[in-house]
Prior knowledge:
Layout: E1 8-10, E2 14-16, E3 29-30, E4 37-38, E5 56-61, H1 65-82, E6 85-90, H2 95-104, E7 111-114, H3 117-125, H4 133-136, H5 144-150, E8 152-153, E9 156-157, E10 159-166, E11 169-172, H6 174-179, H7 189-201, H8 215-238, H9 247-260, H10 269-274, H11 282-285, E12 299-301, H12 306-313, E13 318-319, E14 338-343, E15 356-366, H13 371-381, H14 383-392, H15 410-421, E16 424-427, H16 437-449, H17 453-471
Parallel strand pairs: 5-6, 5-7, 13-14, 15-16
Antiparallel strand pairs: 1-2, 2-16, 3-4, 7-15, 8-9, 10-15, 11-12, 11-14
Amino acid sequence: MSSKPTILVAKPRRLRLALALPASAGLLTLATTLCVPALPAGASRVLPSLSHIGGSLTVWSEWTGVEQQYFEAAISPFEAETGVNVLYRGNSSNEATVVEAAVAGGRGPNVAFVPQPAVLDILASKHELTPVSSVIGSEAADYGSAWNTLASYDGKLYGVWYKAANKNTIWYNPAEFAAAGISSPPASWQQLLTDAATLKAAGVTPFSLCGDIGWPVADLWQNIYLKANGATDYELLAQHKIKWTNPTVTEAFDILAQLVGQPSYLLGGTAGALGTGGDYPSCVDQVFPKPGATPAAAMVAEGDFVVSEITGNSANYQAGTTYPDGKKCTADPSGTPCYDFFPFPALASDEANNGTIQVAGDVALLINPTPQAKAFLQYIASPEPAEIWAHLGGYASPNKLVPLSSYPDAVTRADAAELASASESVFSLDDEQGSWEPELWQDMLNFVKDPSPSNITTVQSTMEQQASAAMGH
Length: 473
């Protein structure tokens, strides 16, 4: 890249030009095992001042499975350099709730990575977090004002956004598209619906819908609302300055109903999407299965973190629509399987909001500030652990010093570049709702159960009551 775009932010949670990733620096190489990653040959240590201090610290996040393995690979150099034993715990999607409860009971970890800025605000307002400006020093400037604003409360920096996520993505199995005669992914919502019908007619189920506890459906709905109404209205809704009974909200539900209101487009129908097959990451496995199984659906709509699950299912998976050496992509994960994504489709070709995207991430919070915990925050704020996970896949870094060359293939580089080149970005709206977020997720599932106009009205009324009670206006 020839320049580093400036990151600006308009309260509360909008990010303009979300990431700036310079293209210089060498490609990170890893040993064949995840636990012994290495920096590029000849590279200097990012944090030579970190000494061998020993001891241990507790670290919690939502990452489990393959994501946990990649994170542990990323922090392996810290443990080797400092002699600190990191006692890790993955809490899956319950991370925010578990952390808040543990901190309230005086049993919080040294460091917690949480996906919601609202949790940072809550804990900081109760004086249960340690400010990190003096801990990470000049490293804070490597994140830009937008991400630092997201990590701040009352003018003080309380966190480091270690991981970003591009949620403007729909992941598809190229072999399934080819089997249905679809030569290129859709660029518009209408084309997406047309392609879904084509896939169904060819005997391929279009979508594996991630029902889970509601957050993937919320992500899907939020993408539609953003594309239809733009970042300004999206922020106003996030702040409850637009009511959930507003016609713009109705419109977004109506649009999503065009998809979820067609049970034959969903793997297992409505019941299957809301059952265990829709749990994350099982919903990803239905499109990109392990060897011994075949794809049950062609697409899954979620953020770029799904790559960790895909590549964890089989080392055979290759990014793109052509296998290395020009081989054809196959549906058989034991053969030459592929994966790719397309940006969340525009609702209309002339829509002004097409370049605006939804993002998310995980922010590191310093709860019990021992010397080991402070050293860990210094390391997390540096480029080194980000480059390691970037190379492994399913990851994007908010750190401006992480080069695009750290990403392992053209697909993940395109994903990271989309974050960098977005005309405007907004943080996941559900993660900004505080205490009523779980209720919002359930409302989204209640909508999927019955996407009729009358139930949409009922769901909107419920959401308005819940938002008013939680947010006080």
